[in-house]
Design a protein that fits this description.
Layout: H1 3-9, E1 12-18, H2 25-37, H3 48-51, H4 61-66, H5 68-74, H6 78-94, E2 97-104, H7 114-128, E3 135-143, H8 148-164, E4 169-175, H9 183-195, E5 199-204, H10 210-219, E6 223-226, H11 238-247, E7 251-253, H12 255-260, H13 272-277, E8 282-284, H14 296-306, H15 311-321, H16 331-344
Parallel strand pairs: 1-2, 2-3, 3-4, 4-5, 5-6, 6-7, 7-8
The structure holds guanosine-5'-monophosphate.
Pfam family, one: A_deaminase
Domain Adenosine deaminase: 11-337
Family: Belongs to the metallo-dependent hydrolases superfamily. Adenosine and AMP deaminases family.
């Protein structure tokens, strides 16, 4: 089996994918066409070179967050959001994903309420599951720019829809510009969701802020996103690193995202290696496959080539990722799928 086929065929679980950052060029073109056909105003002028953040992009971190507005203006009606979800799910399956936890921030637009946003995503996932073999679950996002009231409103809605659709909604997460807001102000909303049975994942340490990293670690989320500035070598402290090593909270790492937004200078110096060597559970993810023009199989390939992992180590990375999915009832199915692949290829 050639290398590209191996990475494509490796059954992969994707645990960190923002819907609006995952829109491919093909999906955005379909959405633009849908807007034109339905007579909806298309304010995007969405040039892909503006939406995509490649290596060496000169925009700063806050500027990078502006690109999502392009996608948001193409997913502001229930119909467009449905199309975006359907096409994106299909692309993850085509890339060899067997399980996806898609995340998205409910938004109020001129065409839909936050309730409709969540309902649309749930319906689109349920409908897609009728013809896809990939299993999909939803994590609802809270943006760090939200007010406390809005965050609590989203948490309440998430709990309400989790009770109605425990087969779809599995978690809640905190994301958005890491320079905005404070983690502590979101603790009541996140706790409300956690107490109702939802799993929690937090974008943590994207910028150097050891005080906040410690607050997040003490909250003991089920997973962390990125974890860039936790090790002292990367802007963390002995305390943040020792605490993570003790708690062994699984970390969703997104190599190309970190390199292209310059959180990490290059692949070789990515913190994946220190996490892997310290046996912190580390899960390879895409973050925003549309914005960073990548795929999960490509992220595995980059990681494996950069850090010279063997095929057996690669397959075990994918196998270990199954332990950290939020949907407890599918873990065994995913595990068996990976073990079957490992056995078939004598890895
Ligand atoms: P959406 O939630 O609209 O489906 O996906 C896009 C949103 O995800 C962005 O507006 C932003 O709030 C969040 N997001 C996407 N990528 C990143 C990232 O790398 N870091 C953080 N902190 N948030 C992100």
């Amino acid at each position: 089996m050639d290398s590209d086929t191996f990475f494509l065929e490796l059954p992969k679980v994707e645990l960190h994918a923002h819907l609006n950052g995952s829109l491919s060029q093909a999906t955005m073109l379909q959405l633009k066409r849908f807007h034109a056909d339905s007579g909806l105003e298309d304010k995007t002028n969405a040039f892909f070179d503006e939406f995509q953040i490649g290596a060496g992009d000169t925009r700063n971190l806050t500027d990078c967050f502006q690109v999502f507005n392009i996608a948001h203006s193409l997913t502001s009606t229930p119909e467009a959001l449905t199309i975006a979800t359907r096409l994106t799910l299909q692309e993850f399956q085509d890339d060899g994903c067997c399980y996806l936890e898609l995340r998205s921030t409910p938004k109020e637009t001129p065409h839909m309420t936050k309730v409709q946003y969540i309902e649309t995503l749930v319906k689109a996932i349920q409908k897609s599951s009728l013809h896809l073999t990939m299993i999909t679950r939803l994590i609802v996002s809270i943006n760090r720019k939200s007010s406390i009231t809005e965050a609590e409103e989203i948490a309440k809605l998430t709990v309400e829809y989790y009770k109605k659709h425990p087969d779809v909604i599995v978690g809640i997460e905190l994301s958005g510009d890491p320079m905005a807001g404070t983690f502590q102000s979101f603790v009541p909303a996140l706790t409300q969701a956690r107490n109702a049975g939802l799993k929690v994942t937090l974008h943590c340490g994207e910028v150097c802020n050891p005080v906040e990293v410690m607050e997040m670690l003490k909250f003991k989320p089920d997973r962390l996103g990125h974890g860039t500035c936790i090790h002292p070598k990367y802007g963390g402290t002995e305390e943040t690193w020792e605490t993570l090593c003790k708690l062994k909270i699984p970390v969703e790492v997104c190599l190309t995202s970190n390199v292209n937004t310059k959180s990490t200078p290059d692949y070789e110096s990515h913190h994946f290696k220190v996490f892997y060597d310290a046996e912190i559970p580390t899960i390879i993810c895409t973050d925003d496959k549309g914005v960073f023009s990548t795929s999960l199989s490509q992220e595995y390939q980059i990681c494996v080539k950069t850090f010279s992992l063997t095929s057996s180590q690669t397959a075990r990375l994918a196998l270990n990722a199954c332990q950290y999915v939020f949907a407890d009832n599918v873990r065994k199915t995913l595990n068996d799928k990976l073990l079957n692949f490992i056995g078939k290829h004598s890895l």
